[in-house]
Every structure is written in structure tokens, then in C-alpha cells.
Amino acid sequence: MRLLLVNANTSRNITEHLAAEARLSLPAGWQLNTATGAFGAAVIQSRRDCAVAEHACIEAVEARMADCDAVVVGVSLDTGLWALRQTLAVPVVGLLEASLLTACLVGGRYGLVVMGRQTVPLYRELVVRHGQAARLAGIEAIAAGAPEVYAAPEQFESTLADAANRLVAGGAESVILVGAVVAGMHRRLQPRVAVPLLDGMACAVTQACGLAGLALPKPGAGSYRLS
Amino acid sequence: MRLLLVNANTSRNITEHLAAEARLSLPAGWQLNTATGAFGAAVIQSRRDCAVAEHACIEAVEARMADCDAVVVGVSLDTGLWALRQTLAVPVVGLLEASLLTACLVGGRYGLVVMGRQTVPLYRELVVRHGQAARLAGIEAIAAGAPEVYAAPEQFESTLADAANRLVAGGAESVILVGAVVAGMHRRLQPRVAVPLLDGMACAVTQACGLAGLALPKPGAGSYRLS
Amino acid sequence: MRLLLVNANTSRNITEHLAAEARLSLPAGWQLNTATGAFGAAVIQSRRDCAVAEHACIEAVEARMADCDAVVVGVSLDTGLWALRQTLAVPVVGLLEASLLTACLVGGRYGLVVMGRQTVPLYRELVVRHGQAARLAGIEAIAAGAPEVYAAPEQFESTLADAANRLVAGGAESVILVGAVVAGMHRRLQPRVAVPLLDGMACAVTQACGLAGLALPKPGAGSYRLS
Amino acid sequence: MRLLLVNANTSRNITEHLAAEARLSLPAGWQLNTATGAFGAAVIQSRRDCAVAEHACIEAVEARMADCDAVVVGVSLDTGLWALRQTLAVPVVGLLEASLLTACLVGGRYGLVVMGRQTVPLYRELVVRHGQAARLAGIEAIAAGAPEVYAAPEQFESTLADAANRLVAGGAESVILVGAVVAGMHRRLQPRVAVPLLDGMACAVTQACGLAGLALPKPGAGSYRLS
Amino acid sequence: MRLLLVNANTSRNITEHLAAEARLSLPAGWQLNTATGAFGAAVIQSRRDCAVAEHACIEAVEARMADCDAVVVGVSLDTGLWALRQTLAVPVVGLLEASLLTACLVGGRYGLVVMGRQTVPLYRELVVRHGQAARLAGIEAIAAGAPEVYAAPEQFESTLADAANRLVAGGAESVILVGAVVAGMHRRLQPRVAVPLLDGMACAVTQACGLAGLALPKPGAGSYRLS
Amino acid sequence: MRLLLVNANTSRNITEHLAAEARLSLPAGWQLNTATGAFGAAVIQSRRDCAVAEHACIEAVEARMADCDAVVVGVSLDTGLWALRQTLAVPVVGLLEASLLTACLVGGRYGLVVMGRQTVPLYRELVVRHGQAARLAGIEAIAAGAPEVYAAPEQFESTLADAANRLVAGGAESVILVGAVVAGMHRRLQPRVAVPLLDGMACAVTQACGLAGLALPKPGAGSYRLS
Q1: Which among A48, A85, A118 is the nearest to B58, CB-wise?
Q2: Which site from A93, B8, C19, F104 is most exposed, i.e. has the minimal number of CB atoms within 10 Å?
Q3: Where in this chain does the entry annotate a coiled-coil region (chains A, B, C, D, E, F) (predicted)?
Q4: Do A52 and A13 belong to one domain?
């Protein structure tokens, strides 16, 4: 079985970073392939970046769709998720979506830690779009953006842990560390936070491979059928 | 003052049709310019079509952004609306969004008549995304898709009027005729429907020009600032 | 075209103040007429004030309904709005309602700055009643009530700007300055606030005249038909 | 202890009818007084009727407020309820509000049977205004309006029972018979309906007298304090 | 008429305490009987405690169901409420449910003061389960758990009053003091809080006896019929 | 790795049926153990049944908790789920919960097919309790109850398929076949339904084993910590 991990931004080093994390969660019997966006932003940070990356993401996946059994969209804004879910016959799962649903299984309400205050509205809207607002305890942003944290993650550990702990104090029973570039950081932060820390990549790989195992048919009706 | 009407699909005849309708609602002192998507679907009908058109729409507008005072996104799925609103300094308004907000001023709950049953989920999700679900009475689809209706609108008048009247029976106090290609059909259907019929183009032109009149500053914070 | 501005309280000086502001937003080809409540409170501040003013507002408008093409209810609690919308054949728009809908077009969630802590529940309920709670970021009150601010607006500029900025810090992407008596203050406060400040009167006049331009028919069914 | 029943419309025969029903639910130790609106509609059926009756209701109660320990607003649109709750020191309860809250204690979701299709939006909005939409299974209207049913109630028993049974089929676990003029009809309809039928007057008298027994203090803060 | 008060935990001293409070609200003509859980926790504080107590509560009541006209479940988590409501022919009312509904009649939004921070999610979920989240202003927890407060209530008066006042500052127009073990403490705290303080036991006894007075039939359909 | 499947009712033949289905979805490297409720109903069909089974379920699992790495609660009402999630250190997943979250990954809104009309309210409440109502398209019941269908499943295939297709016509983009006793029936019904049919057991086993793979720590704070 082959899992295709698509990075919707154009940074191949981020693709490699994501792939390394994805492999840690890959079930037995699965191999990982990757694809990277051919145009658009180096790191997706704005509404415009996300819209252009959606197109890049679709094209990157469609070039590889013949040889995969499941797809993980390796972007925390779930860029292109809905379009790919329509055009492909195999499961497609996004990082944020997978985190939200997995957090539901942990129990109670969850919080999100995001990078860059101007991204808070984007994630809040995305939670609503997924129909998951009822379980959202809150969103805490750190001031630094994704590129800064990616460049020197160890410098932001305390800031991120503090944000997570503010969410716990506000009632979060699990915390999602949001952002493809911080995939894997949950391992170092977990000892500082009293509730489970969820990593989007681990959740998405698990959900995508699990969903492939259910072998559901492609819809023949509705908005996800092949048009 | 110059209003830019962008058609996110690639059909120039639809652009002309939309422009003719837009001119009917243009306030005194405004002129209309148009732009058309350079790539993507001839008529947007699916999730993938919409995602690609979002990119085309952004590029089409950005090529013209120097010479406009407001933008109407002439697509009933409000394709590219959020990205354009971030990157432009002038107001950007979508057809569905403008219809929903205008319907609120008419009073009570509104219904939507859409073309193609598989588009119902897209419009329902869009209403939620705009935060307007509390006023939605229902969505009725006719079986025919947008291209069919565009080709022979007079053949679908009864079907569309029936759909509108089902919504009225279910409590709708106004009805939005959804779809760029049916812009203007409300004039012929109104005599058959007991509540106001709203046309997306008329609403969007009115709202965009009205918003330009308020002369609000570009945000310097949040998710709509220039990144 | 004639716009009727009704002030539901009994203070003619407030009517004059509102009219001066309304004229600043009046489109070409429109003239403004005014009406003032004949009984009730000098400034509406409580639930009882609002209920009595509703009756006064209806009577004041009905006495003038023959000679107007649109009505703005010049009270931030949208007093009498629903009743007038039923009895009149022309558009009727309220200050808060118009602000909320216009803020949706600006993008993201909005915040409200209100005067007098005891009015917060009234505005929160009104946002819900308009079906607009999904876009509400928060409501901030200043301690001073509307009469105090009206008497010496310049003394409250800093307090109002601070309240607006608290909303921005909490995620508001636009801020509505609520209260008929502060109509126009947004011009002086805007330089201190990083997101667009919306003025109810400017929004309501624009929406009412725009709606009149759509020339929608009076409903023949539902709760807004003439009984 | 003295319960004041106010009829917000101007029909004294309806006041008498309501009073007779109210006495059936009056706890030991309570006596009933009545008040009737001095101006407005004979039967409240529209948004305008309701707005004017709100003023009449406030004046009718305030003339009697010295000699009562609780107030029931005997109108199914809860006309004037919020204003009276602010101005009085004793409990004030409305017919619909009391029915909705009592239905919650019966369990599950409830349905509403209303008279006149054009009143459905008014009751739906009222349920939302009370914050009770989460438990609403549906609203069914009969075509006849309140005056017709009041004039010949026995002719509408089957129609009303059918409406109630449609709600039960749709998941309602209790049904509220809405309308002051049908107070008491539940006794004759109950044998035809498989779930409990709630009568607004019985619920409101019980809730108002029960609330008086709790002897809660008048708020000194918030929107219900004396202004 | 006989009211059965069931304490779902196994502490007979708490049963006695609750009974003493219940008697203070018992209407004329009613006598009080009590039942106590035969197995489970001494004080219910966790999800597991609550689940086991549900069974104990059902058995304790069913042993006495022949001789009662109404039941109050004397636990602030409304343990067993829904099951008992199905199996009994008489009204069954829970402490939290009764408080929430009574608070609605007081007006505006209410706040909850709870004991033990880890119980906040349980009460938040319970408010949602009752369909009452629309009126919830917030929940404030004190650090001490129910057993500690029960052991020395006077030591926690200031802490509880502070929590209530934080809710009032946040917009609560009434405050519910949550927890069977604090039944009656509202009398001493009320002078320190500007809005009405609601006591679950007083509310539940009043609602249960009031509901019995309505003499509603047992449902013959739906999820509350006898299976 | 060991997965414990608990059947909360007392029917060992159902346990065997469930176990056979569970094994079909068990990932490589996992073995299945089972437990059965020691007291309560043979098939859970009512609110009381569910409450008692919750206790039985907890006891059955706790007797085995030393030797398992994940637990599936094999009851479509998710009986005991929340209590077990608190008391165990390993993941606990319920059938309905797992189905709802998996359906979210399929895309759009989902429908539920349930057995016995009186169970509709229970499942609707459960969807709300899981915070998943935003994605619910509807619930369709067949008249026959779970025991009847379990006794002769082939007789109900058409009835169940019809119910699923009504949901698809109403906008469901996937359908969950609800009920432990129908585990596996989706294989025979899928050819008759145009959208994916989800089986609770397949979803729950996949989610429970996937969640175990994430190796999340036991919460040290909140309502799911060990008390």
C-alpha cells in the first residue's frame, strides 16, 4: 500500500521534514511517496497563499494519482482537501481535520496552538468548516510565524508550551500543535503539558491508512462523486 | 468610480451576460470593467472546478487591480473571495454573500434555489462559511445543471418557480436564485412567487458600490491585512 | 427618492445630529426627511424604554409613510424595525442590523463597542435575534452611558478606542461603534484602531438606499405581508 | 398571594376566558387579578400588533403593580415580557416561555402547534430569542387564525390534533398548543395525541407562582435592574 | 402528595442535609420521602462515579416508585434523570436541569459556580445535553472539591462569592450555585452578589411539585414511553 | 497488542457475532479479547437499559483492564464510553462515535439508519453529546427493533436500503448503519446505496488501534484524569 504525502507549498526541505515525520507513523505494509507544489508560496501563511496552493496541491497530486492508495495533504490549513476528495478514488486526509477528529476520541474539548496571530481567524474558520466548533475550547497564537519557528524550533519550546498550558487552564483536555513545520515538536513539548499533545502528521497518517483499510466505495452521488 | 466584475470561469460569453446584468444595477457615477479567468472550467460545477477557478480568479483580478474601486466576484460560489479581500485595498463582494446579507434586510429566513442536486452541499457549506446558517430556511435544487439552464433558460422557468414556491411553503420569506448563469431570470420568475426573489448580481453590485462609498481603511491587523 | 430617518426617542436635538450624519452618506438623487418619537424616553437605555419607543417609532413613521421610499430606524437597538418592515411597502433598515451585515462584507468576525455595561445583554440578544452570532467576536462596554457620551464625546475618545483595541486583540477584524448618539465619532477614532470602524448611520443609509434600488416587491406571503 | 394576569390585547371576553383557565392552575393561597390592554389589536396576529400591544401591556401592568406578587403575560407571543421583567420587582412569566421550559422537563424535543401560517416565523424567532431552539422538533400551523378558532373551537379539534400528530411522527416528545385563545383545549385534544399536550396558561401560572415561592431578590446589576 | 428525594451517592448524612433543604421549599399538601444509593461513591466527583451512581439511583427509586407522586434526583449532575423519566409514570426532575430552566425565567444569561476544576467539563457537557447552552454565560470553578466544602462550608463563602461575582462581571444575570452538598448556602452568599443566586434543591422541588400539578399523561410514544 | 471488545448487554451470542466482525478489521499484530456485561438487558433498547448497561460495561472492562492496549465499546449507544475513558490508561472508542468521526473523513454530511422509531431521540442526543450535530444530515428509523433484525437480518435488507436511500436523497454523502446487531450488514447493502455505508464495528476497531499507535499519555489534568 502506498501513501502519497503532498506538501502544498514549494519548499522541498519541508517536504523532506514532513516525510520523515510521516514515516514514524506509517503502519506496517505501507510505503511513503511525496509530492511538492510546483508554484505558490514557500510557506503558506495568508488567505492568498492558501488559495494558490490549493491549485498547486491538486496538480501535484493528480500527477501521481495512479500510484497511491491514500493521500495526506501535508498542510495544516487542509489546502485543497475538498477538491482532492472529489477527484480521487482513494482516501484523502488533511492535517488539521485529522487532528480535530482524533482529539474527539481523546475526550472533551481541545485547544489549538498556532503560529502568527493573523492566522487565528483562518484556523477558527477551518474548524467551523469541518463542523467541529462544538468541541473547540480555544485557539492560542504565538507571535512568531511558521518560518521563524521552523528555522529555530528549540527557541520556541517554552513559548509553545506556555500557549498550550493557557489552553489547559481554559478547559482544553487535549491540545493540537498546529502547523506542518512543527511536525514532531510534540515529543519535546509533551513533558511540559498535562494533557495529550496531538501532532497533525501522526494523526493524518494514521487516519488515512485506517480509512484505506475500510475500503469504502467512491460515492456515486452527491458532491464528492467524480463530475 | 470603476467596478471590476470578474468571471472566474473561462467563458467570455458568460462574462458578457454577467456584465449586462451588472450594468442594470450600477449606481450613477460608476463604470464597469470585466475580467475573465484564463484557465479552469467553462462553468464551475464541482469542488475541483471551484478550487482551480480560485487561482484563475485571483490572477485575473490582480492583473487589473490598479484601476478599480471595488470588485464583484461574479460566481455564485464566491470563488476566491477571501483571498482577494486580503490582497486588495478595495472592497470585494461575492454573489452569494451579497444575496444572503441582502436577504437578511428583507426579513425572516431565506431559501436558495440551485441548479444540479450535487451542488446543494457546496451551497450549504458556503452559507455556513459565511456565518449565515441561522437565517437559512432551506435549499431546493432543480435537476438540471447550470450549463443546461444557461442554454435554454425559458425551458426551466416553471421548474425554478416550483422550487421557489416549495421554499415559500417551508417558511422562506425571500428566495435567492443562485447561479451566475441565471442572473436576470428573477425578473421573469417574480410574478410566479409570492415573496421577493433576489438576484445575486444585483445584490453584489449594490453592496460593492455601497461599501466603496463607506471608504473604510485597509485593515492593518488580522487575517485581511496585506501580508 | 426620499429617505425617512426616524429617531425613536423624543430628543429632537438627537434627531438633528443623526440627520446631519445621515446626509453625509446619502447617495445622489436622495433627499432626507426626519421623524421623532412623540412619547417615551429622551435616550433609550433600558428594556422598558425600548418597548415603549417601539410604539412611538411606529406611529412616527406611519404618519409619514406616504412620502418616503426607504426608512432608516435611527436607533442602535433597531427599535420597531420588525413591525415597520411588516407594515410598510418600502425598505426599512436598522442601525445595528446594517452595521452587522456590512461588517460581514469587511471580512472575518466583528466586535461591538457599546455604552453602559447594562446594555451588553441587549446587544448580545439583538445580534442573536438578527441571526448574526456566528460572526460576533465580542462586545466591549464602556462604563459611561449614552447620555454622558453624547454630552461630551471628546472626553470618551480614549476609552472608546481602548475598548475597540481590546476587541481587535481578541480577534475582531472590524469594530462597530454602537449607539445613535455616537454617530460620526468613528472618523476621529479610526486613526487609533487598526481595523475598520463601522458607523451605524453610514451603514444604514447605504443599505436602505441600496435596497430601495433593488425595487423588490412587497411580500404576499409570510410574516411580513400586510395583515 | 396575588397573581396578576394581563391580557395584552383589548378583548375583555378573552381576558375572562384566560382568567377562567388560570384559576384552574392557581395554587392554594393565591388569588387572581386581571388587566386588559387599553389600546391595540383585538387579537394579536402580526408583528405590528405585537409591538403596539407591548406598550399597552406595560401600561396595563404598571397601573396594577403595587398589588401583585407575580405576573403572567397572557399572550402566546410573550408580548412585553422582557420590559416588564425589568421594571417589576416580582416574577413575570410569559405563556410561550413557560411552555417551552416546562416541556424541557417532560423530556426530549417538543413541537408547537400554531394558528395561521404567517405566525410560524414569529414563533420560531421567539423560541430562538428564549435560547430554546436546541429542543425544538418543529412547528406546525393550521390555516385558520386565532379569531376563527376562538369563535368555534370545536370545529378545529381534528385539525389541531392532526397537526400535533404530525409533530409526534417527526420526533416531538411533547406538544405545546400555542395561543392564548385556545387555553384549555388541550383537555379535549389530549386523548387523540400520544404525547403530553402542554397548555401555556397552566404552565405559566405554575411557573409564576413557583418562582414567587423562591423569593429571589431583584437584580442590582445587569439588564434587568431598575434603571 | 408525596415527593421522593433520591440521593444517588451513598452518604446518608448528605441525604439528611438535602432533605432538610428540600422541606424548606415543599408546597403545602406535600410530604417528603427519601432514598439513598446502595452502592457507588460517597460523593460523586468523576465520570465513573456518575455512571455507577446512575444505576444505584435507578434501583433506589424503583424500590419506592409505588408510593410517590414526583421525584427529585438530588445530585447536581442529574444522575439517572433520563432513565428514571422513562421508567416512571410521575415527574422526575434533576437539580441542575431545574436550576437552568428556572434561571431562564429570571432573565438573560446565567453562570454556574462549581466545585473542583476537573468538574467544569462535566457541567458544560450537561448544559449542552439539556439543550441550554444558548443561555450559559460561563462556568467558574473553585479549586476545592465538594467533600471539602461540605466539611467546612463557612470557610469557602468568600471564594464562592468571588466566583459568582466574576460571572456577574462577565455578563451573568443570575448565578447557580451548583452542588448538592452546598444546598442552602445561597442564603448566606446572596448578600454578597448583585444578581439572584439559585439553589438547585429549591428549584427542583418547586419544579417537580409544579409539574405534578399539571397532571400530564405518561407518553405512549417516543423515547420516554415505558418500553 | 491486545484489543478488548466489550459487549455491554448480556447476550454472549451477540458478543461472538461482534467479535467475528471485529476480527475482520483488526490490524496486523493485534489480537482480540472479549468481555460481556454480567447484568442488564439482553439487547439495549431504552434509556433505562442503557443506564444499567453502563455500570455492567464498566465492571466487565475493569475486570480485564490489566491485559489490554485498547478498548472498543461494542454498543451503538456508546454505553459507558466516557466513564471508561476516564478510568483506563488505554484508548477507549465507541461504535457510534467512531462512525461519526470516520464519516467526517468521507466528506460532507452523513445520515444514520437506526432500528426502532423510539430510538431516534437517543441517537440524536448522542450525536449532540459528541459535538457532531453540524455534520448530521438526518436520522431514518425502520419500525423493527434490533432484536427482530438480529433474528432475521435478510428480511430487513430492503427496508434498511430504502432508509439509507431516503437519507441520500436528503443530502447525506455517507450513511452509518447503526446498531451492534447489524455489524457486517453493510457488505450486503452497499450495492444498493450510492454513497459509502459505514459499519460501526469496522470504524471503531480501526480508530481504537490507530489511536493506540499514537501512544498518547494519560491526561494529568481535566475530567479524564484518574480521580
Answers
A1: A48
A2: C19
A3: none
A4: yes
